[in-house]
Amino acid sequence: MSKMPDSSLITPKALKHLKKRRAADARFRLYGIAAIVFALSALTLLVIAIGTRAYSATTQYVFQAEIMLDADLVAPEGETSEAEITRNIEGFYTLVRDKLFAEFPEASQSQAARQDLSELVNRLAVLSLARRVADNPSLIGKSLEVRVPLSDDLDLYLKGGSPKDVTVRVGSAGTIETDVEGKARISSTSGLSKVTSTRSLLEEGKAMGSVLLAGGKAVARIDSLSPDAAELTLLTGTFEQLANAPLVAHIIPLPEAERPISDQQIAWAIALKQAGNARQVLHTSLVTHTDSTYPELAGTLAAIVGSLLTMMVTACVAIPMGIFAAVYLEEFAPRNRLTNLIEVNINNLAAVPSIVFGLLGASLLLGTFALPRSAPIVGGLVLALLILPVVIIASRASLRSVPPSIRSGALAVGASRMQAVFHHVLPLAAPGMFTGAILGMARALGETAPLLLIGMVAFVAEVPNSATDEATALPVLIYSWASNAERAWEPMTAAAIVILLSLLVIMNVVVVFLRRRFERRW
Amino acid sequence: MDTVGPAKADLALTGEGADKTQALTYPRIDCRNVSVYYDDKQAVFDVSLAIHDRAVTALIGPSGCGKSTFLRCLNRMNDTIEGAKVTGDIFMEGENINSPDVDPVLLRSRVGMVFQKPNPFPKSIYDNIAYGPRIHGMVDSREDLDAVVEKSLRRAGLWEEVKDRLSQPGTSLSGGQQQRLCIARAIAVRPEVILMDEPCSALDPIATARIEELIDELRKRYCIVIVTHSMQQAARVSQRTAFFHLGNLVEMGDTDQIFTNPRERRTEDYITGRFG
Questions:
Q1: How many CA atoms, within 13 angstroms, populate the side-chain half-sphere of residue A254?
Q2: How distant, in Å, are the alpha carbons of A50, A210, A237, A258, B142 from that of A223?
Q3: Are A391 and A501 in a shared domain?
Q4: Rounded distance, CA B270 to CA B67, Å?
Q5: Rounded to the nearest 10 degrees, what angle do helices A489-518 and A301-327 cross at?
């Protein structure tokens, strides 16, 4: 290679500079990629975390049975009107409970056992059945296949949530020696040693929990366990059923005293599942029911409707007001101290914490103007105030992005200022304005704090019919569900979050669609 | 008015030039002592000149000399600029268009304007032309409107090129076509005067040549005032030329005279390329 002359572009100094610059470029690219990867993984983590929690709430265990709708019970003499049938929870519940008693005769032995069995299905769970019958009285006196949700604790257990159990296949029973009534002894099945070892592993040798042995429709509790023999107490069914079916041991490490459901209730649940009377079905009540104190009955319908009503009020107030304020400020207002002050204040208003707007709503709308508490109209107005600056700022930005040459062109052919704005500038700015408006609405939809202050946190069991009815909103419902103690609320809360997020995603999709569809270039 | 200077001389010159040089034309617009202020800054100093009908008047001068600002006085476009103030009298057909009683919207329908950068509305070609006649209620029926659109496009020399795609967006045309569309749009409201603010500065030489031909054609019907950076263009298309410098009207006269025998030293320096 020939020696480079001094004037060459490739000198050691230049090479050093080049290397440095390339390294800087590469570093910068790396930072960017790292930031995006971080953001994406955070998003994925969020979706997975919520998704897995919400997943178990997509289904629900129901008690399903053929029930004869006895007229004497569901619509006794003199109580046959629609409202009276709907209110006759007791009658319907008796039907369902009787069905359970028929299924498990052993429960009739004691008051406590009857009580335990009744707890399998919540009293209020028959409400939707009562409504259905009230709507269609011709069903009375006929046999009907009904589905009522099982109690949340059993539902959680059957879905593998809590208390956790580990199942071990034991195989057939071998010999069963029945001595005392309800007690038995089995021996020499190879499976028992597996159960013993699994149990000691799970309970770390403390042996506090229970082991239930299920076969067919029968379930027995193992009182004492050794690798080659076990003492049984029959919980439901018969020993014959147990002897003739492949056995499965359910090892529940949590001691009976520490869980909300007893061994007996678990045994019934297992038996119901074996018999096909406990079915896992799609959890439609999540979106068709209103709120309830019982997780298995609770749904988000009232909150969804409340949110939609609130959003309607917000949209009706914030969008026209915001757009017209923006048009005035951007196109017509003179530039002076006053408008500068207004502009600064609008920008500041956008940064005011939302709870402050809640306080304003509580004192002004509820206090001074005496609007109804907990009503979507108040919530909607407060949220409209909250997003108004956002809408104004987005609309102004979008108006500013319309080139001034369009305005001049319109003015030059003799359009008035008003005509120039309404015929030319507004149509061009509209997609951007609606983008801003919908993003503002999305923010309002997720807002909780101001709604808490104006009382939209109330327990609402009725779907609101108008903007002045008592209502709650989805984020507030999530907040109150999340603060409930029972374990079953956890998946319910996650499911409500998924519903809220889906609404937000839909709104964002609309934004993207509007932008793609109506954005014009010049 | 705190500035005197060339203004008085120009006034004399204008009156003189108007009668002598273009026997067939008479002043369509007569400007007297026009000054323009942007807030406290004065951009045009006491300009008086006459603009003749059925002729092209070119306003030339270096950047920032106030020629565009002056042009915008003629259809009161300066009204739309915050802080702009125009003083002096501008007579058009004996009416002072700078009077506060004159509706600038009505004025602009009689004084059309074409801008530096083609600015068709992001609508169809048809709607671009039809917009003016529609808002002024100049047509009663769809047929009338069709006729106005066709006539305007024909006069702007664009009809043959776009007659089959009137529903396509005006922004889909080439730069030169867009500018002719803007001219057609200005013509559609039947103005008497057409103002052009550097109409060819964003166009290539071929498109420029077409626009210049068009201007020459339009001269037969309209009074045209054109601001241009290009002295060759002024020489090619205009009959009368006004030279502005630092907000003052330095000299105005027949184009031939300005370019061959300027009276002022500054004019000569500018057209010979010694500054600007």
A1: 15
A2: 40, 8, 17, 18, 96
A3: yes
A4: 15
A5: 30
Tokens coding A258: 């520490």
Beta bridge partners of B169: B124
Say how far apart CA A74 and CA A126 lie, in whole Å: 11
- Strand B56-60 to strand B240-245: parallel, antiparallel, or no bridges (unpaired)? parallel
The C-alpha of B257 sits at a distance from chain A's nearest C-alpha, in angstroms, of 32
Element (H, E) at B142: helix B142-155
Q: Find the CATH number of the domain harbouring A195.
A: 2.40.10
A441 within a domain of the structure (yes/no)? yes
d(CA A187, CA A171): 12
- Asked if A212 and A105 sit in the same domain, the reply is no
The reply to whether A278 falls in a domain is: no
Answer whether A521 sits within 8 Å of B75, measured CB to CB. Answer: no
Q: What are A479's two structure tokens?
A: 């907040």
How far is A326 from chain B, CA to nearest CA, in Å?
Answer: 18
Integer CA distances (angstroms), A249 to A48, A173, B148, in order: 32, 11, 92
What is the C-alpha separation between A139 and A129, in angstroms, rounded?
11
Which residue's entry shows tokens 């999305």? A442
Q: Which residues on adjacent β-strands are paired with residue A333?
A: none
Q: Do B80 and A407 touch (CB under 8 A)?
A: yes
B130 has a chain A CB within 8 A of its CB: no
Residue B112 to residue A413, Cβ atoms within 8 A = yes
Q: Which residue has the tokens 């026009």?
A: B34
Domain with A79 in it: 57-148
Q: Is residue A422 part of a domain?
A: yes
User: Same domain for A202 and A322?
Assistant: no
Are A275 and A260 in contact, with CB atoms under 8 Å apart?
A: no
What is the interface pTM, i.e. ipTM, of the complex?
0.85
The CA-based angle A224-A225-A229, given to 5 degrees, is: 110
- In this structure, the answer to whether residues A140 and A186 fall within a common structural domain is no
Tell me: cis bond preceding A163? Omega within 30 of 0 counts: yes
Does an H or E element contain A232, and which? strand A229-236
Tokens in use for B30? 């007569």
With respect to residue A123, please indicate whether it lies within any of the assigned structural domains: yes
Q: Any chain A CB within 8 A of the CB of B134? A: no
Instruction: Give the minimum alpha-carbon distance from B24 to chain A in angstroms, rounded to a whole number.
Output: 29
Minimum Cα–Cα distance from A405: chain B residue: B119
β-strand partners of A503: none
Q: What is the pLDDT along chain B (276 residues), one digit of tens a residue?
A: 333 333 333 433 344 444 444 444 567 899 999 999 998 899 999 999 999 988 999 999 998 889 999 999 999 999 888 889 999 999 998 889 999 899 999 999 999 999 999 999 999 999 999 999 999 988 889 999 999 999 999 989 899 999 999 999 999 999 999 999 999 999 999 999 999 999 998 889 999 999 999 999 999 999 999 999 888 999 999 999 999 999 999 999 999 999 999 999 999 999 888 775
Show which of residues 56-75 on chain B sit within 8 Å of chain A, judged by CB atoms.
75
Q: Tell me the two tokens of residue A39.
A: 């953001």
Chain A nearest CA to B189, separation (Å): 7
CATH code of the domain containing A367: 1.10.3720.10
- Angle A426-445/A301-327 helices, nearest 10 degrees? 140
Domains for chain B: give ranges and CATH numbers: 6-120+191-271 (3.40.50.300)
Specify the number of domains making up chain A.
3
* CA–CA separation, A105 and A87 (whole Å): 29
Pull the structure tokens for residue A466: 């108008």
Chain A residues with CB-CB distance to B185 below 8 A = 409, 413
Sequence-ordered list of residues with C-beta below 8 angstroms from that of A211, at least 6 positions apart, any chain: A195, A199, A221, A222, A225, A249, A250, A251, A252
Q: How far apart are CA B191 and CA B179, in angstroms?
A: 17
Q: How many CB pairs under 8 A join A and B?
A: 68
Cβ of A413 and B188 within 8 Å?
A: yes
